[in-house]
Amino acid sequence: MTPEQAVLKQEFSVTPRKEAFTAWCRDELFTAELIEAADLMQQALDLHLVSIYEKLGFAELLSEPRSPGDVVDALGYVESADRTIEAVLERLASRFEFVVRSSDGATTQFSHAGEIPASPASLEDIHAAMAKLGDEYVASLEFLAFGEDKFEYALRDDPDFLDKILSGRESEYQELWFRATNTDPLQNVHGIMGAVAIDMLFDRGRILEIGGGTGNGIRNLFKHLAAKSELDRVESFVFTDISQKFIMTTRREIRTDYPDVDTEWRFADLNVALADQKIEPASVDLIYAVNAAHVAKDIVAFLESCRSTLKPGGRVLFAERIRLTPRDMAPRELALNLSIYHRTAAIRNDDYRPMHCYLSPENWVRVFELAGFSNAEVWPDIGALADAFPNQYAAIVTATA
Ligand SMILES: C[S@@+](CC[C@H](N)C(=O)[O-])C[C@H]1O[C@@H](n2cnc3c(N)ncnc32)[C@H](O)[C@@H]1O
Fold this sequence. Notes:
Blueprint: H1 3-11, H2 16-29, H3 32-55, H4 58-61, H5 68-75, H6 81-95, E1 99-103, E2 108-112, H7 123-133, H8 135-149, H9 151-157, H10 161-166, H11 174-183, H12 185-201, E3 205-209, H13 216-227, E4 234-241, H14 244-257, E5 263-267, E6 284-290, H15 299-309, E7 310-321, H16 333-336, H17 340-344, H18 361-370, E8 374-379, H19 382-385, E9 394-400
Parallel strand pairs: 3-4, 3-6, 4-5, 6-7
Antiparallel strand pairs: 1-2, 7-9, 8-9
Helix pairs in contact: 2-12, 3-7, 3-8, 5-6, 7-8, 8-11, 12-13
Residues 166-167, 181-182, 210-217, 241-243, 246, 269-271, 290-292, 295, 341 line the site of S-adenosylmethionine (SAM).
């Protein structure tokens, strides 16, 4: 168990429901395949990053200490690409000796220091091992390979390129994005966890989903409740996103599969107060999001807006990727950090958001508190699972208004 995981174990109290959820994760959800796939993704990320490092001549660029901003200037990338480069170099420096990090508090610099070690496995080996787990697992690797392939193009030639894909404005890559968010079991697991957590924590009422996109959240929730003949617990469901295309496609699917559920389909931007988007205050029992809440620029303001949209005692529940180590880049960020919204969508704060994008469990508890929520919880019990699943990354973060 790492020191971070030991702290988590002490800090987060374990309620009986959380314990039951943790047991379900351990015994049913986190299969041997999923655990192995998560490990292969970590290996694949390192191989891709080393490959980018070599292709772009980082050894030369970092022959003297340079900040991510200096590197971006030297490569002629858009300014905000410093976040992308920072994440790459932080990860390499924390795992290898050939990149050295130095910081005087105000500026962090990186320098090249020695031979790049040969990797025991190649990307082809990893691909073959992943394919043995099932074709759907290969979707996760495809997304990483795409990230390496488009790295320069997205950061220099067409800075809006990835944002167009992530918001459904680029039809050529729609299939890739759908596979990366829905087919990939490492991603689908977020929606499955969300469905089970809602089943455990929510009785019935009106649900608002934020950033519902290609439908991982609503699809898994309806499937789960339908299997128990309990779909009537969803008295109404308001599905929102900023992509009209995603809204239309998901609407078509859900209306065909669940024609009797009362659903509403609307544009909503989580960076704008929900009350200013015709979503009535105190009108919703549950606000749900799968891998979308971390998009918020000002996470506390977003949560405050959620709190006023909820009826008293209502709940927010987000299925989120979490960072166990504050500066560790997650595999998917190789591609996601090529989008402007991912790398800039965070007002950083030392107290609760030291990095862009994903938050740690402690960060989530803190932002819920700052936004006036009570009973913040992070499920499952990450400390308890640490030995069995060292690369565990998926959590439910929830609190009541
Ligand atoms: C990682 S995807 C998750 C989608 C979906 N929940 C799923 O898991 O399949 C993030 C979603 O957030 C949406 N999004 C991005 N910026 C947003 C914003 N400012 N307000 C609301 N949704 C946003 C994107 O269109 C995308 O559908």
